[in-house]
Amino acid sequence: MTKPFDYVTCIKWIATLFLLLAVAVRSVEEVPRIYDVIFSWISACGWLYVSLMWKDRALILLNSVIGFMLLTALVRYIV
């Protein structure tokens, strides 16, 4: 049985790819840390949207907190 492909599934996979990209960037010391934070924040926002569509409270809480923490890191880097 296969699940039909919809926009939430597309966002889920894009967010997952951004998370993998963030981890890959984190493992290379020559790349500035800000790229890891940016890619992780994009991933958290994508997963937050997906979790809101799924109405999954645990994922909503997790990605809200992670997104806020990463946004704080971005603001501290910019300011």
Describe the structure.
This protein is mostly helical and 79 residues long. 81% of the residues lie in helices and 0% in strands. It has one domain. The longest helix is centred in the middle third of the chain and has 22 residues, at 33-54. It is flat and about 40 Å long.
- What is the N-to-C order of secondary-structure elements (H for helix, E for strand)? HHH
How many domains, as an integer?
1
Radius of gyration: 14 Å
Report the total helices: 3
Strand content: under 5%
Shape: flat
* Helix content bin: over 70%
The parts where pLDDT drops under 50 for at least 5 residues are none
Question: What is the average of the pLDDT values?
Answer: 95
Q: What composes the largest sheet?
A: none
Terminal Cα span? 50 Å
Structural class: mainly alpha
Q: What's the total number of strands?
A: 0
Topology:
Blueprint: H1 7-26, H2 33-54, H3 57-78
Helix pairs in contact: 1-2, 2-3
In short:
The chain has 79 residues and is mainly α. The chain has 3 helices and no strands.
Label this structure with key terms.
flat; 79 residues; 0% strand; mainly alpha; single chain
